[in-house]
Amino acid sequence: MIIYILKHSNSEFSGTLCGVGFSNGRGSTSSTFDRDRCIKNGCKDITDKVKSIQAAQKKKEEAKAAKADKAEDLKKKKAEEKAMVEAEKKAEKEKAPEEPPSKEPLEEKAEEPEKEKK
């Protein structure tokens, strides 16, 4: 069902004209007959204009939501990358201490026989 939005010539008009109720110069009806009678009496049909404004607002909201989603995805991706880097560093730190202790005992053992010889 189409709802027609009408604008009265007097922007402060509140009341009924040709079966259409108006408030502050605007009225709406679903009857084409009532709409046609109001137009004959000086009102303007602004239905298309209102619909285009609503569509533009909806498009802006969707673009804003998409931008927010994109920013959130980017933050998540950066957080994941940071976590991966930290995990790699932690793994390297865990491996690094293991290698030097294994070399040090060999050196210590090699030094001990030298001391015994003296």
What is the secondary structure topology, with strand pairs?
Layout: E1 4-7, E2 15-17, E3 20-23, E4 26-29, H1 32-40, E5 44-45, H2 47-117
Antiparallel strand pairs: 1-4, 1-5, 2-3, 3-4
List keywords for this structure.
118 residues; 2 helices; 14% strand
| Largest beta sheet: strand ordering | 2-3-4-1-5
**Helix proportion:** 55-70%
State the end-to-end CA separation: 109 Å
What profile does the largest beta sheet have? 5 strands, antiparallel
Radius of gyration: 39 Å
Return the structural class. Answer: alpha+beta
Number of DSSP strand runs: 5
Query: How confident overall, as mean pLDDT?
Result: 81
Give helix and strand order, one letter per element, not per position: EEEEHEH
Oligomer: single chain
User: In terms of per-residue confidence, which ranges show pLDDT below 50 for 5 or more consecutive residues?
Assistant: none
Count of separate DSSP helical elements? 2
Shape: rod-shaped
Strand content: 5-15%
Structure description:
The chain has 118 residues and is an alpha+beta fold. The chain contains two helices and five strands. It has helices at residues 32-40, 47-117; strands spanning 4-7, 15-17, 20-23, 26-29, 44-45. The protein has a five-stranded antiparallel sheet with strand order 2-3-4-1-5. A hairpin with a 2-residue loop joins strand 3 (20-23) and strand 4 (26-29). The longest helix has 71 residues, at 47-117. It is rod-shaped and about 90 Å long. The N and C termini lie far apart (109 Å).
